[in-house]
């Protein structure tokens, strides 16, 4: 119910920020799926979408919503996606759904990033949720050793290959991550790392948080 309420508010916000030539970036996960299903009722109001995963692309196409390659669009007006954790600065941990690289790419392109989440994702400091790091397969052990030097406890996400053909390490024991921007840069600099799930260098611009008292809208 909280996901539904947040997704409903997010559709209304999105429609208020776009026109019929706009491209909407779509995230991945169960909250993003609620958003897709509700957005479908207004598909005449958007020009099309860019998806951050094959799964989301297929869901959109099943609703008859046009899905474009990111290289084919000039601009993404707004990107709407969930998160695994968000702190009060709207800095996020993402990647629970293994789509973090394409999510981060579309978020980087989008003019505005609207994060949609229920209150269970709200934390004072990031890092209780294990930080997903997407890694080139041959570099997995090297990256794991480097993450240990940073104080992490990396666990290989067995049996998962990303849309990009890479593997994921989930890094435990980093809490409290502060400052998040500094750790994001350090992990980015480890050779073999493709993406890490910290969205602090580029946080969300707006957060819609589903709470027992209703949907709260917060700004970075
Ligand atoms: O993988 C991600 O970053 C997703 O946004 C995801 O973790 C959030 O998933 P949920 O909306 O199903 O909680």
UniProtKB/TrEMBL annotation:
InterPro entries: NagB/RpiA_transferase-like, Ribose5P_isomerase_typA_subgr, Ribose5P_isomerase_type_A
Molecular function (Gene Ontology), one example: ribose-5-phosphate isomerase activity
Annotated keywords: Isomerase
Enzyme Commission (EC) number: 5.3.1.6
Catalytic function, reaction form: aldehydo-D-ribose 5-phosphate = D-ribulose 5-phosphate
Active site: 103 (proton acceptor)
Top EC category: isomerase
GO cellular component terms, semicolon-separated: cytosol
Record function comment: Catalyzes the reversible conversion of ribose-5-phosphate to ribulose 5-phosphate.
Subunit (UniProt): Homodimer.
Protein name: Ribose-5-phosphate isomerase A
Species assigned in the record: Porticoccus litoralis
Source organism phylogeny: Bacteria, Pseudomonadati, Pseudomonadota, Gammaproteobacteria, Cellvibrionales
